[in-house]
Amino acid sequence: MAAAPAATASASASASASASDAPAGKYVALGDSYSSAPLVLPVAPGAPLDCAQSARNYPHLTAAALGLQLTDVSCGGAKVENMTQAQYPDAPPQFNALTPDTTTVTLGIGGNDNNTFVTAVAGCGVIDVLHPISAHAYCQDFFGSKFSDAIASDGPNIAAALQRIHQLSPHARVLVVGYPDILPQSGECWPQMPLTSGDVAYLNGVEKDLNAMLQKAAAAGGATFVDTYAQSVGHDACQPESTRWLEPVVPSTDAISVHPNATGEQHMAAAVETALKG
After folding, report:
1. Is pLDDT of 1 > 80?
2. I need a surface site. Which of 46, 118, 209, 227 has the fewest CB within 10 A?
3. CATH annotation of 28-277
């Protein structure tokens, strides 16, 4: 009979170990290419090929670090409308992944809405390519307040998405993940990013407007805003390969142009983990 307490203790320890190894909750990651991390290898097993989702993006890294059971439906090119509408035949509405027992949700969206990012980066690049060294903001002359106006108009769409997340997953903690710093705070880095110093400042303002809108929507929508911009200053696409967290127009590592590389995704994951622990 003396063996019984030992056996009970062993079983208790085993159960405790199993409990500690079990996922701490169900985590659904929603978002666009800054969340899915295209070309940051390896590709996430089972993810739609159209979405170019990485197994080393911040949702996967966060889930592994915190012991969360991950459903990652982030998809390159996603807009807020793709929360409720299919993006591709193999990429159904992202909100389909939300369930009543979801405990954690991250939402990284907004940059593609109204084609803001692609128009700003490609459009300004085309305009500025004829002015390799200049302080003038030629792109700002052309677009004016177009981007800031579009971002402001998108605020209600982000707010509606957050409201729907709370309805579908009423017990979940919701985080809105902002965008990291793409460009230096001053100057230029021709030809890595073919922009005049004036338009670098202009586009910095556009990105700050986007993050401010997301932060405001998060505060109003019962979500936590995760600032990935402040920590990434000095690690923009103009920095040397060993320093930068985002790639320039012609990338030199495993990431697509003007997107976070593997190091950038690691730092985004760290910011999300800190927010969740806090």
Report:
1. no
2. 46
3. 3.40.50.1110
Torsion of CA 268, 274, 275, 278, to 10 degrees: 180
Nearest by Cα to 83 from 31, 44, 156, 27: 31
Q: Is 269 helix (H, G, I), strand (E, B) or coil?
A: helix
pTM of the model: 0.90
Residue 52 CA to residue 110 CA, distance in Å, equals: 18
Q: Which long-range contacts (CB under 8 A, 24 or more apart) does 152-155 make?
A: 152/209, 152/213, 153/114, 154/80, 154/110, 154/113, 154/114, 154/213, 155/213, 155/216, 155/217
18 in Cβ contact with 239 (< 8 Å): no
d(CA 209, CA 84): 25
From the CB of residue 174, how many other CB atoms can be counted at a distance below 10 Å? 21
Give the pLDDT confidence score for residue 19 in this predicted structure: 37
Q: Which of 145, 121, 256 has the alpha carbon at shortest distance from 200?
A: 121
Residue type, 238: C
- Could you tell me the pLDDT band of residue 24, with boundaries at 50, 70 and 90? confident
CA of residue 98 relative to chain centroid, distance: 18
Q: Which residues are catalytic?
A: 33, 259
**Confidence band of 12 (pLDDT split at 50, 70, 90):** very low
In the chain, where are the structural domains located?
A: 28-277
